[in-house]
Amino acid sequence: MGFEELAIVLTAIAVGSYFKGAVGIGLPTIAVPTLAAFIGAEHAIVVLTIPVAASNIWICWRYRKMTSDVPHLNISLICAAVGTASGAFVLAALTDIALLWLIIIWLGLYLVVLAFKPDFQLKGKAAKRGAPILAFVGGACQGATGIAGPMIATWIHSYRLHSKTYVFAASLMFLAISGTHVFAVGGLGLYTEERIYQGLLAVIPTVLFTQFGMWTTPYISAKWFNRLIIAVIIVMWIKLILQAVAT
């Protein structure tokens, strides 16, 4: 990889990490396609499992005092873990393309709801009953396809939490779900010495720019924070549509 290619990759990781720290989502969405263009999809995904896990751990540690501010947290974490572990079995009957379109439809419906009711909020009994189901589905999507971001981002967004609490809640759920990905990749023998080295090297800009994003979160107004979340959701939605059409 030449200097220009390396600069592009590091910039993608830096930008993705900034969004991760500032709004809780965005690192894999931005970094994986960029890195995959130079080293291949599988290599990129395996390498980025390390910095992605590091960013979630860093955020969860820094915002750990906000645990009590996240609604229905314990049951959600349990259901997400169960969903991740059983995703391959629960969704085995569906093809990858079918799963992609289900996620696309979910995102589309959520964006339609926001278009007609911008102040939509999941709360009360609906939130209590929906939390374990949505957590399980998010975990199942991760276990079956490796894609959990759209489900988690829209679900946590529907709570309309304070900006820092949203970042913490999303990162905690991503850590619970994607943490198993690291062990799965290791169990499959996909970590080579080169990939581990590259992943650990990527942790440096990831943590630095994640922290930079966390510093800027308090300066983003609630209105613009909400707009940024919706913008990232739309980007993920378009990305999935393009992926599904190209399949």
Using only C-alpha atoms, the radius of gyration works out to: 17 Å
* Total E-strand runs: 0
For the biggest sheet, the summary is: none
User: Spans with pLDDT under 50 lasting ≥5 residues?
Assistant: none
Order of helices and strands: HHHHHHHHHH
How does the overall form come out from the CA principal axes?
globular
- What is the average per-residue confidence, as pLDDT, rounded to a whole number? 82
Q: Oligomeric state of the chains?
A: single chain
* Content-based structural category: mainly alpha
What percentage of amino acids are in beta strands? under 5%
When the domains are counted, the total is 1
User: Can you count the helices?
Assistant: 10
Helical residues, percent = over 70%
Distance between the termini: 28 Å
How would you summarize this macromolecular structure in one to three sentences?
The chain is mainly α.
Structure characterization notes:
The chain is an all-alpha fold and 247 residues long. Helix 4 (73-90) runs parallel beside helix 6, helix 4 (73-90) packs parallel to helix 8 and helix 6 (124-145) packs parallel to helix 8 (163-187). The longest helix has 25 residues, at 163-187. The protein has one domain (3-246). The chain has helices spanning 3-23, 27-39, 41-62, 73-90, 96-116, 124-145, 149-157, 163-187, 193-216, 222-246.
